[in-house]
Amino acid sequence: MTVNDHPLHHQQPLDAGMIHSEAGEPLDINENVTRSWTEIAAWCTFSGALLFFIALILALSWYMAQSDQLAYISTFRSIIIGAMILASALPAWFYWKTGSNIRLGMLRQENETIEHAFAQMLYAYQFTVLLSVVTIASILLLGGEAIISLLKQAEI
Amino acid sequence: MIQDRFETELPPVEVTPVMRGQWKTISGWALFSGIFSLLIVILIAFLGAVVSIVAYGMYLQFNHPTQGIRPELGAASVLLLIPVVIFLVMLVAAIYHILFYAQMRKALKNGEQQAFERAWVNLRNHFRWYGVCTVLYIITILGTFVIVQYLLNPFRSPF
User: Fold this and answer.
1) Could you tell me which of A65, B20, B36, B158 has the fewest CB atoms within 10 Å of its CB?
2) Burial level of B52, CB count in 10 A (0-12/13-18/19+)?
3) Residue A110's closest chain B neighbor by CA?
4) Looking at chain A, which residue has its C-alpha nearest residue B26?
5) How far apart are the first and last CA of chain B?
């Protein structure tokens, strides 16, 4: 599903009152809000770059270990590393795009670009939660595998 | 000059129904993330307390008061600082996320401009806190690497 397919992207304005709050009061994107957005955009770009770097390091370590005949990586471990690479690269992309779209939207004063930025921030949040779940699951699975191999060695 | 041109020719960005829907969903995810972090924080605190009690028991068992502090036990107590730091970093970030949720929902429901501005300040603080902590973490790791390399071989460049 792309950002354009997201249900929020196709949400139609119901009436003029919906543009304001439920109480009917308007919310203003003033200087204070744009100042916060500018910094949020910068940190989102930073988070994106950092997560890309982590994904790259993981991919390189896996590749180098695979090419080394002495270091054997099982299919099980390769799947876990692959899941972690994907779970880092996906939020990285959406954080990066959030940062660039907020900056672009504020520079062009375009509502659509700002909407696009927040749609990507939403994806970034969802994939960050996925990354957390994958990381915890990986730690538990690898720990479990290590304990099982230790028990097997003890039996021998 | 480019900024002036945009400010004079283009209409300012305004709150649209799409943005309102997105902010409502994002604040929901922020709350989920905050609660998830708080659960991890509680787990870290619990594990940290258990490890501290066990370590203190070992200290009392193996270290007689007349012997002074043994270096390996001193190093172990420094390692206990790591969960404390993770606990603090995650706790502050979770609080900012929960505050963002609360202020944003208040702003969207009652149309309070002040709550709307505070919500974005809280989200900005969340990102700023995690960003600064990450930079400090990277500096600490690099610094430790350089110091360890220097201690192992003071006449050799660490790079």
Assistant:
1) B158
2) middle
3) B13
4) A122
5) 45
Of the residues B9, B15, B43, the best mutation for testing chain A's interface (the one with the most A CB atoms within 10 Å of its CB) is B15
> pLDDT at residue A23 above 60?
no
- What is the Cα–Cα distance from B8 to B135, expressed in whole angstroms? 39
Classify the phi-psi angles of B17: left when phi > 0, otherwise alpha if psi is within -120 to 50, otherwise beta: alpha
Residue A39 contacts residue B124 (beta carbons within 8 Å): yes
> In this structure, are residues B20 and A25 in contact, taking their beta carbons and an 8 Å threshold?
no
Give Dmax over CA atoms of chain A in angstroms.
75
Question: Using CA atoms, how far apart are residues B46 and B52, in angstroms rounded to an integer?
Answer: 10
ipTM, two decimals, is: 0.75
Asked if B15's CB is within 8 angstroms of A26's CB, the reply is: yes
Sign of the alpha-carbon dihedral angle for A55, A39, A5, B102:
positive
Residues B59, B64, B65, B66: what is their CA dihedral angle, to the nearest 10 degrees?
Answer: -150
CB contact under 8 Å between A118 and B11, yes or no, is no
Taking residues B83-108, what's their average pLDDT? Answer: 92
Q: What is the radius of gyration, based on Cα positions, of chain B?
A: 24
Quote the crossing angle between the two packed helices B113-152 and B81-110, to the nearest 10°: 160
For B127, the closest chain A residue by CA position comes to: A43
Instruction: Give the nearest partner residue to B15 out of A29, A34, A110, using CB atoms.
Output: A29
Q: Check pLDDT > 60 for residue A2.
A: no
Calculate the CA A152 to chain-centre distance: 38
Mutation pick from A39, A53, A106, A123 vs chain B, by most beta carbons of B within 10 Å, is: A39
pLDDT at B8: 53
